[in-house]
Write a structure and sequence with these properties.
Length: 617
């Protein structure tokens, strides 16, 4: 990155306060005096956000609809200009903590009545909530685990009404396969049934041989009755096995790598520089050169939707307003065009609310005119994660060997069902067709809460993630200033079931540590676990839980009468020319990681948009 660019980025991205002042004092006035830059640019589609969804959507639209042009506005910088860290799987922790590519969000601290003793108040601490602010969005900074969730997740989406049939598992599977390019070549027929080999998202098996201690965890699991699973995205999810990853040749593969780079016409960097040229690493492939119409602007922060003021009651979107190159710009859509918000679960909700679509109270307290009252932000779902760290007495240097260049340290996983009374688990839970816990096994100190508690090279970490939680959080605007972060209330463990499920999984982790050869040969011993009462467990869980960064469902796809914000075709209720297509539309949270489901949603959205575009006169 050039020193000049770095200085500009540091100024823009690190010093939020300065930007907010600029906004409040200057931009607003300029805006009112109409001296902001009118670009007079018209696009068929304006896509807000070049994250997982935005990248897939841009490419699919430009390849499938002839003679259109697209503007993609991304608030973050191009990933290639930041550094190589993002390519290296072992450095994913640095990637999501990098100031210049992270939104810097935090969840709010929350007090609530205890579950074990409702007369006592308990505390969920607030903490940093990573979100990629970069071309590729979270797919550029995530842990690269490729898990889609279960058939039942998507059949639930489809069960909302006959028109939702287009979201049942069969339809979703078609899209998962269309996006995927799986490198596992020695495939049996069953694997082929569930996987795609011609998509643009590269997926591959982990590249490392397991350490001896990890092999012994697999033995222990087997002894406990947990079967081996060769494909968590296949016919069944339960069991123990290796994850597949969104990687190519051992390096991170983001959705921008697959879906944006070869569809780019030009990338306008900040400050604007000459467009990449055909033949350059970030320019067009020969094949893509004929599609000369995707304009990606990075460091372009969208402020709000522009509405057609002549048709006030119809809420017709005609363009977007964005902050770019030091001033406010406007870009508009052509007559058959649309604005598609792909800003991710926090930002898509925020952009809608800033544009007058959201809960009346929250908008009015921020002096935003309500155009359409909808429960935007009210249904924030997420996967809580909590870990148990084992101290390993036999020094094995595993932290170094597992966390090598092509591994992010999250290779081995187990899926099983938790117990909603918090009891230790047995075989019935291990063979349940609807597992709700994902357990990561690692010899790295991956748990941020425990990261300072032990030596680096002699640990065994078991991280439990609640994949089907019933607690629901919410998001609200803090201010009408688009640069201010919204308030994020995760509400973890508001519902008793969630606490007990987590408790049962942590108890299983303690049992795993006690099994030979882990206890005998390796001397594994929990750092935390003594004999704990359920009340102790509650305190432990609340203290050590962090988010898996799987926020979703804040702009839920559902009938409006049932809390929906977008319909089955992802159109925002009470508006025209406006859709949302990203993690925020999930009706319920899938029992797995979210990158693949988001890419799937974007692919399906592209087909819906194409149909509607072609049907317009
Ligand atoms: C640290 C971390 C680890 C994760 N690990 C995994 C994993 O291992 N496997 C997995 O499957 N999933 C994982 N996830 C989750 C997964 O990556 C995300 O759920 C998914 O990428 C979200 O896609 P999206 O398109 O909804 O949003 P994003 O990818 O967040 O894209 C939104 C884009 O919009 C841009 N944007 C937002 N607001 C504006 C604005 N106002 N103007 C312009 N641009 C804007 C953002 O900068 C961003 O680029 C992880 C996420 C994180 C953060």
């Amino acid at each position: 990155m050039s020193p000049d660019l770095k200085t500009r980025l540091d100024k823009e991205l690190k010093d939020d306060a300065e930007i907010r002042d600029l906004w409040l004092e200057g931009i607003y006035n300029r805006d009112h005096r109409q001296t902001f830059k009118k670009t007079n640019e018209f696009y068929d589609f304006i896509i807000i956000g070049a994250g997982t969804a935005g990248c897939v959507l841009a490419r699919e639209l430009i390849y499938n609809i002839p003679h259109i042009n697209i503007l993609v506005l991304e608030a973050g910088p191009p990933s290639t200009q930041i550094n190589d860290i993002m390519r290296s799987p072992c450095a994913f922790h640095s990637a999501f903590r990098a100031v210049e590519t992270d939104w810097g969000y935090s969840s709010e601290e929350q007090k609530m009545p205890g579950i074990i003793d409702p007369n006592k108040e308990v505390l969920n601490k607030g903490s940093h909530y990573p979100r990629g602010k970069v071309i590729g969005g979270c797919s550029t900074v995530n842990a690269m685990i490729y898990i889609r969730g279960q058939k039942a997740d998507y059949d639930l989406w489809a069960a909302q009404g006959p028109e939702y049939k287009i979201w049942d598992y069969d339809h979703c599977l078609e899209a998962f396969k269309a996006v995927e390019n799986n490198a596992r070549k020695s495939t049996d027929e069953e694997f082929k049934k569930y996987h795609g080999f011609n998509g643009l998202l590269h997926v591959q098996d982990g590249q490392i041989d397991f350490d001896d201690i990890i092999k012994d965890v697999i033995k222990v699991a087997k002894n406990l009755g947990i079967p081996y699973n060769n494909d968590f995205n296949g016919v069944r999810q339960y069991g123990i096995g290796k994850h597949q990853h969104t990687m190519k040749d051992g390096k991170r593969f983001s959705l921008a790598d697959g879906y944006l780079t070869d569809a780019l016409r030009k990338v306008e960097t900040y400050p604007p520089s000459k467009p990449f040229e055909i033949g350059s690493p970030h320019g067009l492939s020969d094949d893509a050169a004929k599609f000369v119409a995707v304009n990606v602007k990075s460091s372009a922060h969208v402020l709000n939707i522009i509405w057609d003021e002549k048709k006030k009651d119809e809420n017709v979107a005609i363009g977007v307003k964005y902050f770019y190159d030091g001033r406010v710009h406007e870009s508009f859509i052509a007559p058959k065009g649309e604005v598609i918000i792909c800003g991710g679960a926090f930002n898509s909700a925020q952009i809608l609310m800033l544009s007058g679509i959201g809960p009346k109270n929250n908008l009015e307290e921020n002096n935003i005119k309500v155009r359409k009252e909808l429960p935007v932000g009210r249904n924030l779902l997420d996967h809580p994660t909590c870990g148990i760290t084992g101290k390993v007495s036999v020094l094995n240097g595993t932290g170094n060997s597992q966390l090598n260049y092509s591994s992010c340290g999250l290779e081995l996983a187990m899926f099983y069902k938790g117990d909603n009374k918090g009891k230790v688990l047995n075989q019935k839970h291990f063979l349940d067709e609807r597992p709700d816990i994902q357990l990561h096994v690692s010899t790295s100190l991956l748990d941020p809460v425990n990261a300072t508690s032990g030596k680096k090279n002699d640990v065994l970490t078991l991280l439990s993630t609640l994949n089907l939680p019933s607690s629901v959080g919410h998001l609200e605007l803090r201010s009408s200033n688009p640069f201010m972060h919204p308030k994020i209330f995760l509400n973890f463990y508001e519902k008793p079931d969630d606490l007990y499920l987590m408790m049962s999984s942590l108890k299983l982790s303690c049992e795993i540590f006690k099994q030979p050869p882990l206890s005998t040969v390796w001397g594994v011993e929990s750092y935390e676990y003594k004999e704990m009462s359920d009340e102790d467990w509650e305190q432990y869980i609340r203290e050590k839980t962090f988010s898996s960064s799987h926020a979703c469902s804040t702009v839920k796809m559902a009938p409006e009468s049932q809390g929906g914000c977008v319909d089955h075709r992802l159109q925002v209720y009470g508006t025209k020319n406006l859709r949302v297509a990203d993690a925020s539309i999930f009706p319920t949270i899938p029992a797995g990681n979210l990158n693949a489901p988001v890419a799937m949603v974007a692919w399906r959205a592209s087909r819906l948009i194409e149909e509607d575009y072609k049907n317009k006169a």
